[in-house]
Amino acid sequence: MDGENEVSLQCFGDVLRRMGKNNLAEKTYNRLLVKLSPNDPSFYVLCYSFGMISKDRNESRMVSKITKNSRKWLCPHMCT
Fold first, then answer.
1. Residue 68: CB partners within 8 Å, gap ≥ 6?
2. Which tens digit of pLDDT belongs to each residue from 35-66?
3. Which of 25, 32, 62, 76 could make an S-S bridge to 54, C-beta 3.0–4.6 Å?
4. Which residue from 76, 80, 27 is spatially nearest to 49, judged by alpha carbons?
């Protein structure tokens, strides 16, 4: 699959999550996760998206772990 389709899956999952369809968003993100390597920059955006689903579900321990790590990967200049 080319990068353009991967971005579309990420965006589609984000829209589903914003609509409150967390289960469908999670399925979409999992589908994308299978296709990405941990070295792909999109992988870290996807991790952040999983963290946002956990936040929406009030899974605070998981949110803290995922979002903290993904912020570090996405914005290393902002982390100390």
1. none
2. 888 788 888 888 889 888 888 888 766 656 65
3. 62
4. 27
